[in-house]
Amino acid sequence: MNTTPENTTVPLRAAVAALPAYVPGARVAPGSGAWKLSSNENPYPPLESVREVIARAAAEVNRYPDMFATELVGAIAEHVGLAPANVVVGTGSVSVLGHVLQSVVEPGDEVVYAWRSFEAYPIYAAIAGATSVTVPVTADGRHDLAAMAAAVTPRTKAVLVCTPNNPTGPAVHSGELATFLAAVPREVLVVIDEAYLEFVRDADVPDAVALLREYPNIVVLRTFSKAYGLAGLRIGYALAPTALATGIRSASTPFGVSGIAQQAALASLAPAAQAELMERVDALVAERTRVAGALRDQGWRLPETQANFVWLGLGDVTTDRAKEAMEAGILVRPFAGDGMRVSIGEPEANDAFLKLAATWR
């Protein structure tokens, strides 16, 4: 008879034992017909040109990939206007964040970030041995950058700025970020997490790459998961000063990014693919505008989302409402006690959610 080993005589690190669980978006059961609006995924399938590249790359999975993703790093560098030495790729921007913190944080250091923000932040801060210092977002879901600057102490090693903010949606503005950067000591790393950059239509947002050229203590995170529709291949990247990028690269998992992921991302950066992908992003932004407008017409007060999701501040009834949504065949992402994040999906999925949301008013 098979048995399951459960107990161990080897204690976990205290920081690991105390980690909050990362809660992924609920998955659609095969054949259920449910709409998945829980994971901020791009509802469009990969481009045909990218699928063809994936199929060809699959024939070589018996070989290790290029450990440094040389060709892709060069293409990203050209795309953003930096040198290849300033680019580090990894298995999604969240994994790259972990390598960033491992590169600079010592046990006992502090990491400052807004809350509620991306739920991986407390996990990776703790794994790096840091103490999390959280600063509440404002009533309209924005980063309070003045309060975050005030939270910086001599023990602070990094500050994480998620823009647009996941899960509330607003992006930080140029003036407030400039004031913030001027107030933060140069030895404190500022991570600008731009996972949803391509969905931003607010004209008053900073140029993170330009800031990276100006400030020696900035790292920018971006991903191919959202706008590029490659979430299942897990590939993202950091843009950093050369010396920081070298350290991040050293902390990264060897051969971490698969050859398939590298080739798919490279194909997605081709000019024709870029144009087609941005047409899809424009369509999702139009759907975002439609959904947000319809919700406001129903009487909802929403943060100004610049991402591919909307946020409903439901408070104590969040879990109940998420259960009702699941029963109606709509999977959303609840954050118990705070609110519900709803991804922008297919128009039919968005219509189904709007119909349900109207019954909650």
In short:
Aminotransferase that catalyzes the conversion of aromatic amino acids and 2-oxoglutarate into corresponding aromatic oxo acids and L-glutamate. This protein is of the alpha/beta class. It is built from 13 helices and twelve strands.
Describe the structure.
The protein has 361 residues and is of the alpha/beta class. It folds into two domains: 14-40 and 272-359, Aspartate Aminotransferase, domain 1, CATH 3.90.1150.10; 48-270, Aspartate Aminotransferase, domain 2, CATH 3.40.640.10. It has 13 helices and twelve strands. A hairpin with a 3-residue loop joins β11 and β12 (339-343). α3 packs parallel to α10. The chain is globular and about 55 Å long. The model has no long low-confidence stretch (mean pLDDT 96).
Which sequence of strands runs across the widest sheet?
2-8-7-6-5-3-4
The profile of the biggest β sheet is: 7 strands, mixed
User: How far apart are the first and last residues' alpha carbons, in Å?
Assistant: 54 Å
Q: Summarize the helix and strand pattern as letters.
A: HEHHEHEHEHEHEHEEHHHEHEEEH
EC number: 2.6.1.57
Organism: Myceligenerans xiligouense
Domain Aminotransferase class I/classII large: 36-350
Cofactor: pyridoxal 5'-phosphate
Summary tags:
361 residues, alpha/beta, Aspartate Aminotransferase, domain 1, 7-stranded mixed sheet, globular, aromatic-amino-acid transaminase activity, HistidinolP_aminotransfase, pyridoxal phosphate binding
